[in-house]
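Now for today's protein.

===
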Amino acid sequence: MYPALISVQTLFEHLDDPYWVVLDVRHNLLKPEEGQRLFEQGHIPGAQFADLDHDLSGPIIKGKTGRHPLPNPFVLAEKISTWGIGEGIQVVVYDAFGGAFAARAWWLLHWLGHPKVAVLEGGWPAWLEAGLPTTPIVQAKNRRPFVVRRLCTEMVAGIVDVWAAADEGRLLDARTFDRYCGENEIIDPVAGHIPGAISYPFINSFDSNKSDSVKYFKATPTLKKELQHYNHPVCYCGSGVTAAHLALSFVYAGFPMPQIYPGSWSEWITDPDRGVQTGPQP
């Protein structure tokens, strides 16, 4: 079982394995339709397209939810069935930005009690760099029953959990540092961060020395050393997407799965009484 990251070579060796399913989760927050378009132009053979907004998120309720609410688990399970995923299937998810979006699918499958899921390290750019085959042809999978045997609710942090984590110095903000400071908010209507939160951008998990074009993770010992200071962390971001990438980093480094505040910043700011902090300090 591959529970965190998997190499392009390993995936290539299993492309014809009927017990492996590949999900393409490419996305652009500012151009949501781009992922589907890129998938139709070319993808890993046999891959199924998972749309972040429509498949991996629930309906937005204005003034209450964030931008990517958790989907209804049973609606999601039905969608997962159509991708050919069922009990015992190894799932591999990828995108074009080091797993920033693919990690959402990875986390959701864990949430539904399916731990046999890994993020393709380096994603689509690594696959292309390795000269591996691509195709524009969509190959539908035979439906498999996906049963939610146990919903892992302990993975989800609520508002009370967020306040506690903030007070105890274990609430981590996965957004870029400028957005954390409130200096460059290009997506949400309010800038800043949750009071007490510590900035730990998800991009900190990448090794900038490995490649200019492909985003690879830092070596496990390095990442473990950087993350070991945070006990029982709660992760959040703008809408619960890159927070999952930070959770992936913890698991890859050998730590237990941290909690995620799914609504994240975009949900937090729907209630002005919750408070907003700007600047570089928690």
